[in-house]
Amino acid sequence: MSIDRIFIVGAGLMGSGIAQVCAQSGIQVILNDISQEPIDKGMKNIAWSVDKFIEKGKLSEDREIIMARIETITDFSRASEANMAIEVVFEKMDVKQEIFRKLDEACKPDALLASNTSAIPITELAAMTKRPEKVLGLHFFNPVPMMQAVEVVRGVGTAEETMQRGMDFIGRLGKEPIRVESDVPGFLLNRINLVSYVEAIRLVEQGIGAVADIDKGVRLAFGRRMGPFETGDLVGLDVSYGALTAIYEESKDMRYYPPQLLRRKVKAGQLGRKTGRGWYEYTDDGTQKGA
Ligand SMILES: NC(=O)c1ccc[n+]([C@@H]2O[C@H](COP(=O)([O-])OP(=O)(O)OC[C@H]3O[C@@H](n4cnc5c(N)ncnc54)[C@H](O)[C@@H]3O)[C@@H](O)[C@H]2O)c1
């Protein structure tokens, strides 16, 4: 059964991005959030991003046709129409577990249930349902419309058929699935990336290098589009801090111990682009000051 209708819980940064790429691929979307305000914000972001793709000649359909594939709702009354639900809410275990319990009740018995979590074990979300074999992780990267890789994550009870359907679905979105065979916190790619982020922050703490110099060096020496601090501001310092804490708590591996400078910036509300200040400062239109 192909996945042609999807229920997305959470219309924030990632949920709206996932809704957009689904709609661009011809999939019908029902986008849910707790109230109309985050939904309106999410829909505005989607319309802006779709326009950008059309301007660049990367989409051939009209904006209205793509947007018409996304319907919005503030309850779970239409979750039963979907072949798959994706949970994309705050990185809080109790909130996500409650959503999985509700989705299990509301969705068709053969529907897949996925989470976009960065660090919470899929197994602990699946345990809230009567269908752990149909629960998987679909870990998109930010910004969703631009990033090609999506981790397809197996929980302890996830069936191979579910993994395969998840991989096919990601392929249908024009993205590349990366198989992750165990739901360890951070999965594959964040574990690799976070080690170098922590090391970059420690080098700044020790006065060995400056933020802008390290970013420039990493871009030029390793052929990356962004350095660790530029990426950190885009992702959100709080998001990386949460992921590091989760990985450290499970593994007790010091490579993931959140550096003090990161902790202090999160406490000060310097969370990156979304607050106008993180490792760099940003103007209201999102341009990096002094860049
Ligand atoms: N930000 C990133 O770069 C990134 C990258 C990969 C994965 N993730 C993961 O994606 C998830 C969402 O992150 P985000 O950055 O989009 O967060 P966000 O804060 O932008 O959006 C979260 C949305 O969830 C909604 N929400 C909260 N509780 C809800 C509920 N009970 N029912 C319906 N909606 C609810 C909020 O109103 C908000 O609109 C997290 O698990 C995060 O770890 C984030």
Protein described:
The chain has 291 residues and is of the alpha/beta class. The protein folds into 2 domains: 5-180, 3-Layer(aba) Sandwich (Rossmann fold), CATH 3.40.50; 189-275, N-(1-d-carboxylethyl)-l-norvaline Dehydrogenase, domain 2, CATH 1.10.1040. 44% of the residues lie in helices and 13% in strands. The protein is built from 11 helices and 8 strands. The chain has helices spanning 13-24, 36-55, 63-67, 93-106, 122-126, 160-172, 189-205, 211-222, 228-235, 237-251, 260-267; strands at residues 5-9, 28-32, 70-73, 84-87, 112-115, 135-140, 149-154, 176-180. An 8-stranded mixed sheet has the order 3-2-1-4-5-6-7-8, sandwiched between helices. Helix 1 (13-24) links the parallel strand 1 and strand 2. Helix 1 (13-24) crosses helix 2 and helix 9 (228-235) crosses helix 10. The model has no long low-confidence stretch (mean pLDDT 95). The structure holds nicotinamide-adenine-dinucleotide. The site of nicotinamide-adenine-dinucleotide (NAD) has 26 residues, from helix 1 and helix 4.
